Amino acid sequence: MLVQNLANLVWSYATLGVVDDPLMASISAAAMSQMEEMDSQNLSNIAWAFAVNALEDLPLFDALASRSINQLSSHDGDAQHLSNMAWSFATIQYEHGPLFTAISGASLRSIAVFEGLNISNTFWSFATLSRRDAPLLDALASAAILRITYLAAQDLSNSVWSCARLAFCNLPLLDAIASRARAPGCQFVAQDLANTVWAFAYFLYADSPLFEAISEAAMRKISDFISQNMATTAWALEELDCIHEPLLHALSKEVLLKIDSMDFMPMATLLDRRLWPESHAAMASRLFPLIDDFCARLLQASSLEFWRGGGYQHFVLEFGVGNFGAVGGRYLYSKLGIFDPDEDFLLRASGHVPRIGRMMADTYVADGADFLRQRVVTYAEFELRSPDLREPLRGSGCHENGRTYASSWIAPVRPPLCPYADRGTCSEFRMLASFCDAIAQADPQGTSSASGRAEISGFVRALVSGPCCVSCVGAFAQFRRLFPAVVVSVAAGGVPEPLQP
Fold first, then answer.
1. Contact of 173 with 141, CB cutoff 8 Å
2. SS3 at position 331
């Protein structure tokens, strides 16, 4: 079969949504044998067709990448080819470094001819694979601003979502997208609404008219919202201090209608929102048994090797929940023997934690582009006593997320759905790791054995500005296993007031 016919055939089947595995295998083999004859359109059509059908034929994708790189070394390729190739590889989560480097270079040289879909697909592809290519991001932002009136709702949503995913803080682009999104005739579907408001909330971007418009649009499309859309929208509007009670009532009703089909992580997020008590009770009745199972399996760990040897990492990836939220997290901690701190501590701590919820740190510049750090603050007070210490170790203060803390005592893990996350940077992990190092330095003999560590007593009290991820849950569990006589109490994130029907 001729190369053009081969590419047209596979494109047609994918467009119709028809998946024929034997046929796709034959097409893959034929494409591999004729790779040197393919032009850029053939390459992108085949890549797109396999990606749409979630067919991760890596040998084929490697061959497509190699051929595309060779072509881009002699000419830039058209915008459609560049964005389609990037989209196809990102869709199957295949970060082919040399290909994306070539696509970036060619895109920079061709950016003047990029249209709305080319811009948003390229943004989305690099964001999905967490590739912070500052020159390309700046060029895409400038192109999007220049063509903002031609960007469709999905292009706007994908572009601003990509900025947030990469923490790429380009205020002129955010302003342009916000203005365009408010314009009459810009029609968002449920997924676009949720992604757009989430992205603006990531940057704590204030635009009350935009969020009012999104809230009203969400009300009209609420029946189309899946659980993730509901959770994303409710979280974002709360973080932006946009209280739209009619939408909260609509979300409360929708939770009850869809409770049996809701995913667990969105439920954990919604359980932290101001919804009807009946909605909270319905979600808790599904989420808490899952937490019971999580804790039961966690408490079965017989030694610290479960964490250090990768057992906990495997467990959390298999379990598939990255964060149980503030309400779910407190229930989880109670099962691990970690309870809420007393009110006096919480009153003191609230004076040190600027905000319970999302906070942003300063921007930083990398390769000429501005990126934004998320800020998580943990205020803690501790007292650690040992028979070999004349005076207890005491202290108080704030701990923030930052440079990863290399600890020989406790181990972080990568949460599910966060393939590039380094949780050694979390404020809670850094705090607990520093406490371990402090007591080990003060009493090296006492901390050298399990029996010695069992005689170390005292307390650690902490207030965290947001819910703890499963990595930090594991960090607290490890600290408790290391020092079982130390009383640990934690409050992470805020517990909502119920919304009366």
1. yes
2. helix
- Secondary structure class of 369 (helix, strand, coil): strand
pLDDT for 127 beyond 90: yes
Under DSSP, is residue 255 helix (H, G, I), strand (E, B) or coil?
A: helix
Q: What is the 3-state secondary structure (H, E, C) of 13-68?
A: HHHHCCCCHHHHHHHHHHHHHCHHHCCHHHHHHHHHHHHHCCCCCHHHHHHHHHHH
pLDDT in tens, 41-85: 889 999 999 898 888 989 999 999 999 999 998 776 789 999 999
pLDDT tens string 409-424:
999 999 987 777 789 9
Which residue has 């970690």 as its token pair?
338
On whether the CB atoms of residues 446 and 454 are closer than 8 A, the answer is no
What φ, ψ does residue 195 adopt, rounded to 5°? -65, -35
Q: What does the alpha-carbon distance between residue 288 and residue 281 come to, in Å, rounded to a whole number?
A: 10
Backbone angles phi, psi at 166, to 5 degrees: -95, 0
The answer to pTM > 0.85 is yes
Tokens of 197: 């408001």
DSSP letter assigned to residue 169: -
Q: Which of 65, 74, 58 is nearest to 109 (CA)?
A: 74
CB count in 10 Å sphere of residue 284: 16
**What does the alpha-carbon distance between residue 217 and residue 191 come to, in Å, rounded to a whole number?**
12
CA dist 498 → 254, 279, 289, 333 (Å) = 16, 10, 22, 22
Asked if 329 and 469 touch (Cβ cutoff 8 Å), the reply is no
